[in-house]
């Protein structure tokens, strides 16, 4: 028998990993799966990536450039918990995809390279987490290599992120001199050891009381004195860990470890189990009334945070990744979007470990894949009654704009259809100026354009070319009807509409945006737009 809704909900932990490329996200993902028993040997995540790439002949870019464009989810059990690890693309050109995925996460793990500390992409992703009050656990990785002093890294976290770091571990040395960590919560020492030649399985790391008899065989007396003194000092210098403060986004518990050497990885899962929030209540409009919808609400609801295209290239399928926000979902249910579209969910998928399988049920916090033929788009809300609408899948003002043309001028209607469909999936954004017949696409990173060209060629048989356009910066604009009218009259050539008909202003550059914004204080310029659907 299935446990009650509240018990099922309380078991779920849905999180994403944020990091700068190369900090070790893939390695950590793989070792989390290994520690959770979802895979048996290291190398599987990468191998899966390879397999996927060779299968997806439509997406040669992935293969050529050796990057994974698609993001997905991996579900596995850890003790009583169901862990949903949301995978995000590593390449920063696809950060929009990552931002959207973060809207589906209840918490995040921030991975820092112990030698490098906070890097630009970490900072950007952190800001998105802060915007959404997503609590963050910090994993300081690669302690088996020469690292910065732990205090220096924690200071950087405090200063750059305005977040209170609370070490749960304190490391003894790094690189060749890395001996392990004190678990400051228990005063145990967890000894680090490198794998022996040919050893591949999960590595055991001995845990023993720091002041016990057994430690003598692990640390020299001098090392034991040093780390004991440090542990006392550290306990006095940092605040005590407070789960409530972490969940409110003020404090971040910090673990030191090595993803590659499977050190600290099980403890990270334990921290997620013990501290990370179960599915959070979601802000929503229910029957047009603003409310916060608890995950234990009976009505099934959720939202599409990603469209995964062409998982199976033979079928040109579209799978909407739906993060369930409340209720107990059952296979075969009919769900409605806020705008009245209906969909019978007969073949919902879950992504267990490394595989996708048909699922009969799912709960708040879970992600189900809903195959459809372009009915669902990114940001759509789904619920049984169709009266629940979530806001919050953000669009970010693109940083690169291009005019797009089709080589055969007779096909420009087809081009619009393709650009609209791909914008609905979130591949790129589409803007239509009020004057003229241009179609302008916007992206955060240039690789998004490459994906667009490939997909338009493969799926719509159109050859497109990009041309530089006079605009390089875009903002959504808002204000009273009169203010917008007068603004539009004076700035005709820069007025355009996005996919949802929302007004935007296209400027030649950031300077012009600032100049125009200053001259129209009654019009609000924003670089993020959240749809309510
Ligand atoms: P990413 O997904 O964040 O981009 O990083 P990824 O896991 O691919 O790791 C980047 C590099 O850092 C990889 O080395 C990986 O093996 C290494 N690495 C990750 N975690 C640790 C760790 O705890 N200790 C050490 N010493 N190295 C770590 P690479 O040489 O670029 O790739 P590979 O040839 O080893 O696969």
Overview of this protein structure:
The protein is of the alpha+beta class and 533 residues long. Helix 2 crosses helix 10. The chain contains 14 helices and 33 strands. An eight-stranded antiparallel β-sheet has the order 28-25-27-26-30-31-29-32. Strands 2-3-1-4-5-11-6 form a seven-stranded mixed β-sheet, with helices on both faces. A six-stranded antiparallel β-sheet has the order 18-17-23-14-15-22. The longest helix is centred in the middle third of the chain and has 17 residues. The protein folds into three domains: 223 residues, Rossmann fold; 113 residues, Rossmann fold (3-Layer(aba) Sandwich); 135 residues, Alpha-Beta Plaits (2-Layer Sandwich), CATH 3.30.70. Guanosine-5',3'-tetraphosphate (G4P) binds next to helix 2.
Short synopsis of the structure:
The protein has 533 residues and is α+β, with helices and mostly antiparallel strands. 28% of the residues lie in helices and 32% in strands.
Layout of strands and helices, then pairs:
Layout: H1 5-10, E1 12-19, H2 25-35, H3 44-55, H4 60-65, E2 73-78, E3 81-86, H5 95-102, E4 107-113, H6 120-131, E5 136-141, H7 150-161, E6 164-167, E7 169-172, E8 180-183, E9 188-191, E10 207-209, H8 221-237, H9 243-247, E11 251-256, H10 265-275, E12 282-286, E13 289-293, E14 301-309, E15 318-326, E16 328-330, E17 334-337, E18 342-344, E19 349-352, E20 355-358, E21 361-363, E22 367-372, E23 381-383, E24 388-396, E25 400-406, H11 412-425, E26 429-433, E27 440-443, H12 447-460, E28 464-468, E29 473-478, H13 481-490, E30 495-497, E31 503-507, H14 510-519, E32 524-526, E33 528-532
Parallel strand pairs: 1-3, 1-4, 4-5, 5-11, 6-11
Antiparallel strand pairs: 2-3, 7-8, 8-9, 9-10, 12-13, 12-24, 14-15, 14-23, 15-22, 16-21, 17-18, 17-23, 19-20, 24-33, 25-27, 25-28, 26-27, 26-30, 29-31, 29-32, 30-31
Helix pairs in contact: 2-10
The protein binds guanosine-5',3'-tetraphosphate.
Guanosine-5',3'-tetraphosphate (G4P) is lined by residues 19, 21-27, 90, 141-142, 144-145, 258-261.
């Amino acid at each position: 028998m299935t446990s009650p809704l509240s018990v099922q909900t309380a078991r779920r932990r849905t999180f994403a990993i944020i990091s700068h490329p190369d900090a070790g996200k893939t390695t950590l993902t793989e070792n989390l799966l290994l520690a959770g028993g979802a895979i048996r040997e290291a190398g599987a995540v990468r191998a899966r990536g390879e397999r996927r790439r060779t299968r997806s002949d439509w997406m040669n870019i992935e293969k050529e450039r050796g990057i994974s464009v698609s993001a997905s989810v991996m579900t596995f059990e850890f003790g009583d918990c169901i862990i949903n690890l949301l995978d995000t693309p590593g390449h920063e050109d696809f950060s929009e995809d990552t931002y959207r995925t973060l809207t589906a996460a209840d918490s995040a793990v921030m991975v820092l390279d112990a030698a490098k500390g906070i890097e630009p992409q970490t900072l950007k992703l952190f800001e998105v987490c802060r915007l959404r009050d997503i609590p963050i656990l910090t994993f300081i990785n690669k302690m088996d290599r020469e690292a910065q002093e732990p205090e220096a890294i924690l200071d950087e976290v405090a200063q750059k992120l305005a977040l209170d770091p609370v070490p749960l571990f304190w490391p003894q040395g790094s690189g060749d001199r890395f001996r392990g960590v004190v678990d400051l919560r228990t005063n145990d020492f967890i000894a680090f050891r490198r794998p022996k030649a040919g050893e591949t399985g999960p590595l055991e790391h001995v845990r023993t009381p720091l002041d016990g008899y057994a430690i003598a065989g692990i640390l020299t007396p001098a090392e034991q004195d040093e780390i004991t003194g440090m542990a006392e000092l550290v306990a006095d210098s940092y605040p005590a860990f407070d789960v409530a403060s972490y969940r409110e986004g003020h404090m971040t518990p910090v673990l030191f470890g090595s993803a590659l050497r499977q050190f600290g990885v099980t403890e990270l899962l334990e921290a997620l189990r013990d501290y990370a929030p179960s599915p959070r209540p979601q802000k929503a409009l229910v029957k047009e009334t603003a409310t916060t919808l608890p995950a234990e609400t009976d009505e099934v609801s959720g939202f599409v945070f990603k469209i995964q295209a062409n998982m199976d290239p033979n079928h040109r399928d579209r799978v909407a990744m739906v993060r369930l926000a409340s209720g107990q979902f059952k296979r075969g249910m009919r769900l409605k979007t806020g705008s009245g579209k209906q969909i019978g969910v007969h073949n919902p998928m879950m992504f267990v470990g490394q595989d996708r399988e048909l699922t009969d049920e799912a709960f708040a916090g879970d992600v189900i894949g809903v195959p459809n033929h372009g009915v669902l788009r990114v940001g759509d809300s789904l619920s049984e009654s169709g009266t629940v609408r979530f806001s919050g899948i953000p669009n970010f003002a693109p940083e690169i704009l291009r005019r797009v043309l089709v080589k055969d001028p007779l096909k420009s209607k087809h081009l619009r259809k393709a650009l609209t469909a791909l914008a609905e999936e979130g591949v790129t954004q589409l803007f239509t100026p009020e004057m003229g017949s241009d179609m302008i696409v916007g992206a955060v990173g240039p690789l998004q354009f490459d994906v667009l060209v490939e997909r338009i060629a493969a799926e719509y048989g159109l050859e497109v070319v990009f041309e530089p356009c006079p605009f390089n910066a875009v903002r959504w604009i808002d204000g009273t009807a009169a203010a917008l009218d007068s603004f539009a009259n004076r700035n005709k050539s820069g007025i355009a509409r996005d996919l949802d008909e929302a007004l935007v202003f296209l400027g030649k550059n950031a300077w012009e945006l600032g100049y125009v914004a200053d001259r129209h204080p009654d019009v609000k310029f924003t670089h993020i737009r959240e749809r309510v659907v």
